[in-house]
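Two proteins follow. First one:
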Amino acid sequence: MRAQVLLLAVGALGLATSQTVHYDATRYYKHQNDNGQQQVQADVGDPGTRGFKNPAQDLNPKTRADTQRTGGAMATLAEALMMTGTDGFTAVTLENNPSSVVPAADIGRGVVGSDTGSQAWYFMAPSDRFSGDLSAAYNGKLSLTLVHAETPSMGKVTNYPDVVLEAKCGHSLQLFGFAAKGGDLSVMLNEDAGWVDSRTKKAPSALDVLGVLSHLSAVKIRGGYYAAAESTRISSVKIVSGKKWYPCCTIDGTVDICQKMPSSYYNPDGLKFYCEGHMYRPVKVTR
C-alpha cells in the first residue's frame, strides 16, 4: 500500500489526524482515508486494519477491468463425460419433482432423454460433483454439449430456463435462450453473462453469483424444449475455475468480496459468501 500522509496537530490533545490517499491491497480503486473522513491517528480501531477500515466495507466490489474476466488457471472443478453410462444424471422438473423421463446411456455419445408431452424437464447433474462450495468457478465457465436428436417438425420452443444453478437457500440463477439450437456450448459464471436471479427476475450482482456458487445444491440442464415428442442428448458437462475472489470480513461484522487473499484476521477458516448474496439480512440479537 502506497500512502502520502499529512499530519495535522489537534489542539492540546497531542493527537494527529491522518489525511491519507492510498491504494488498497484488495481493490483497484483509489480512495481517501478509511471512509472519506479524517481519522484521529490514536484511534486505529481493529488492529488488523492498520488504521484503516477494511476497504471491502466501503467500496463497490465491481472493480476496474471488470474483475479481469480472462484471468485464472481454468482448472476443472466438476466434470461428467457420460461416455459409458448415465454418470449419475437423473431427470426432474423445474420444481425438482420427479420427471417421467428416464435418462439412458447412449454409449460413446452421452446421456439421452425422450418425452412425448409438453413438460419442461431437466437433466440434473450428480450432486457428488456439482454441488457444495464452487465459489472458485466465479469468472470461470460452464460448458457442455447438447444435441436435439429428435424434434417435432412444427414445434416451437417453450419459454423456460435452459440452465438452472440452484442455491441451498432456495433461489437460483437461470439462463434463458442458451441451448435451443444445441451444439458445443459454454457460458461464463459471472453477473454479466445473462443469468437471471429467480428472486428479482433481473441480472444478479457479483455477490449474488458468488452466493449461489458457494452454496450450490444443483445444476440442471434443460432436456424438454417442445410441447411435442422430442429426444435430447447431453455430454461433456464441465465447470472450470476463473480468477479467484475471496470472502472477507468487514469491521461491521459482515462479509464482502476481496480481490486478493486477506489475512486470517479477515478470512478465518470456513468463511463463505452469503448464500443470499446482496439480499442477506443479518439477525441482531439484543436484550
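Second one, unrelated to the first:
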Amino acid sequence: GGVVQELAGSDTVRAMALAVRVEKERFKFNCAHFVAFKGFRERLHGHNYQVGVTVYGELATDGYVLDFGVVKEHAVKLCKAWNEHFICPMNSDVLDIKRGDGRIEITCEDGAYFVFPEVDCLCLPIVHSTAEELAIVFTDLLIKSLTLEYLEERKITEFKVSVGETINQQAIYRLKLKDYPEIVHAARSKATPCLDCATDGQGGADAVSLK
C-alpha cells in the first residue's frame, strides 16, 4: 500500500501522459442527412451515430485525469441535443439554404427541393454533413460545455473525438488544447453564427451557441 501511495503521489507519475476513453451506448444520436458537393448529392438517409471521447492529460492529485462521470454528463447532453434531427450544413457551397417563417428550405444543384420544419433541423456551421465535420463541431461544443478554464485547471492537453456512422466506420478528430479555439475556427473557416437545436430535445432556435 505504501509503495502505491508513494508512486501515485510522485511528480513523475502526475506528469506522465495518460488518457481516459469513454464510449457508451448513450453516446449516440439518430439523424437524417445527405452529403452534397459540386456535381454530387446523396439521397436523403440517416444514421445511428455513435460518439467516443478520449481525453489526454496528467494524473491529478485525486487520481484522475478526468472523471468518467464528467465526460459522460457533457457528452450525453450534446447527443440528446442532436438526436432526431435533420443535419443542415449551413455553410454548404452547393446548397441554397433559406431559413425563415419556422422552416428551412433547401434547393440542390440537381433541382431537388426540400422543406423541413426548423425545429426538426440541426443547423450547424459546417460545409458538409460528413462524420469528419460533425466530429470537429462536437469537439468544439464539448470543450465549451466543459469550459476551457476547467480543462486547463485539470491539465488536460488533448481531445480525440470519434463520430461513427456504423460499426467500424468512424471519423476521428484530434485536437491539442493549446491550439484551441484557433484550429477549430480554421477548420470551419466559412463558419457563420448559427444555433444548434435545443438541449431539451424539442428543437427550436434557443439552443447551444456556435458563435
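SUMMARY FIELD: The longest strand covers residues 45-57. The chain has six helices and twelve strands.
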